[in-house]
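anyone seen this seq b4? input:
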Amino acid sequence: MQPKTAEWVERSARLGYAAKGFVYITVGILATLAAFNLGGETTNSSGALQAIARQPFGQILLAIVAIGLAGYVLWRFVQAIQDPEHPNSHGAEAIFRRLGYGLNGLVYAGVAYTAVQILAKAQGSAEGNSTQLWTARLMAQPFGQWLVGTVGAFTIGFGFYYFYRAVKTKFREKLKLHRMSQAEQTWATRLGVLGMAARGVVFVIIGAFLIQAARQADPSEAKSSEGALQALQQNDPWGGVLLGVVALGLVAYGIQLLVQARYRRIDPT
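predicted toks r here
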């Protein structure tokens, strides 16, 4: 990759991490307000984008977020194709890592497309639950229930991987710690641990719902992150507390992404 191209990709990636962080902060704030009955709502990335669009200068903010998410998608695809951060890595681990980058890029390509739809006022209220739609399509395939159950198991495993990253503070390895003060390192670590743990909780709940959908052959049992947060809220008598803790964790995760936008090691070459 040419130096100028690499520099452009790096800037796009940093803007992408910031945009992703902004989305997570919005989701977390809305869920925190809902947890304390202050008028928020449990929602997913699509709901967060719609909330952004409703704010003063929301269309401008949403356009910046959409551009940033496009930059994040570009970076993920560069990682999937070239894996520049692990130049000497081979074998199954490298293959799965590249697949993970590619899948993550596709997911956020969908989020960026949703932002564009909202900007174009093309997304109506009858959008439906995309998680349930793709679950139904997958379940309609041969061995569909097994496929959905397998996806659910992998999703739970991914959640536990986030717990592992939180406990081991693996995210610190990708930060330019030498450019951060001791206080910045401490708070970046605390926010990262809380944020990774919250993400892990959400993935485990989503995976559990997918397994339940597979067992009952009922796609309506599948839930997105919005459904996972609602499940926490409905868990009496501590639903509000559980939702509040996880919601604050999502805010922390979003802030940690802003830290990555500033201090992450990004070398597209």
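Residues 182-216 form the longest helix (35 residues). The radius of gyration is 19 Å. kinda curious what u guys think
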